[in-house]
């Protein structure tokens, strides 16, 4: 009987054989594929076995620390792998700036041989697939409008209409758009707003209103249900701004609101602002906006008791900024500003944590006494603007009720006499309410008109032990007193001695050589009491960043008997490293950065 043939192993039986599984802890890290490294212009290893591959998650971690657009652009040209990993970061935030005049680089206009950078940027977003990565889109600058006379004939000029269509086409390709900012000198039209309506991911909107009195189409901005931040600036009722009342009513998630009116109305005492144009729909529907942060700039209008204090929910609001608004005693504006005092019936903001204002008066002290738990208070003393040509700059109206600066004759800028008793009385009221109701204070910036004594500062630090930043007008105390005061504040890392410009004290400090300032501070701030201190400032011109302590080499501190506290001993002894920095280097420190009336189209 013949032997039966041996059956063949089929593919099905082979595939059915289970493969051994590799435990997760035995697997190697996910690395970059070998072929991607050969596309890089960087030098390769002579021996392929010597090349060490970085895991992808480490590469991604490194790329997250790059925030400069130029660096990201160069990284994308390094290799194919870096191109795909860095490209989303490169186009995550896009800003296109337009200029009213042609700019030249090396004798040639920008965009030589092609369009302007603004136009080519729009072309890239419309014609390429990069718009899918955009999460923040901002257009800013001056758009050159041609045929402006067409507005008076009832028609939008063609180049302005083409701008709206191009931006709408770019926005339609942005699937992940979260923030949009229109900061051109011409206003957006219905075409752009309709594009925003189809962006459910949009949470932030910034609008710049036109500043020219040219008849333009006015749009009722449609609802954006998921909007959380709204910033509108350069509002002028005579320049055809768009209507935001429906947007405020329909934005149920709105938490941050910043409104900036043109300073023209307050400068000219022009009563053209009507709050019903902005909050009328909310008052009619009895809708309360759940704002957490609110900022008002240059508001000049009459309070007729319509109930605007109930537009926002005061039980949830945490931060308030009021710059150059109701409260001035300028003879030109006092009549309208007094209506806010007469109709003052504001609810108590129990959860308020931050307040920033440029007015100091008795009404403000009364308001601070009605609640507890304030953590940050910034009293701006004067205007400090680095952009005098910007329409968004907020000027300061002279005020007598804020103990204004006195000139050589002892009077304020608007001619109102200011006595020393009035200044001390108001300062005492503020300090009393801070020490009684707001012992949770972390950031405190007082007026530079209030010269405080050592005992007063000592009591403030004793009652507010959580202070991290302190700025006040304080004559330089004895070193022993300074050490005792600093020892009361273990969390303090920034201190600023305020000085009024052109004052006797400021001129005295400026007359001393800079090396003497550094020597005096360096030989004092090395002590253990100042170990947590990182920033030290006098006025506006002397700001120092503190470093580590340098100790003298051992065996070289031999001094003659009786000279342990002499100047020679201070030169030999330990010294704290100091670096003088400019204003920009400390803008992130609130007692410097918040001490300005300059408007910024963003929330800090």
UniProtKB/TrEMBL annotation:
**Organism domain of life:** Eukaryota
- Any Pfam family hit: F-box-like
Q: Polar residues composition bias: which ranges?
A: 407-419
What the entry lists under SUPFAM superfamilies is as follows: F-box domain, RNI-like
- All residue ranges annotated as the F-box domain in the record: 53-96
Which portions of the chain have biased composition (kind: Low complexity)? 386-406
Q: Where is this region: Disordered?
A: 1-25, 386-419
Listed name of the protein:
F-box domain-containing protein
Q: Which organism is this protein's natural source?
A: Trematosphaeria pertusa
The lineage is: Eukaryota, Fungi, Dikarya, Ascomycota, Pezizomycotina
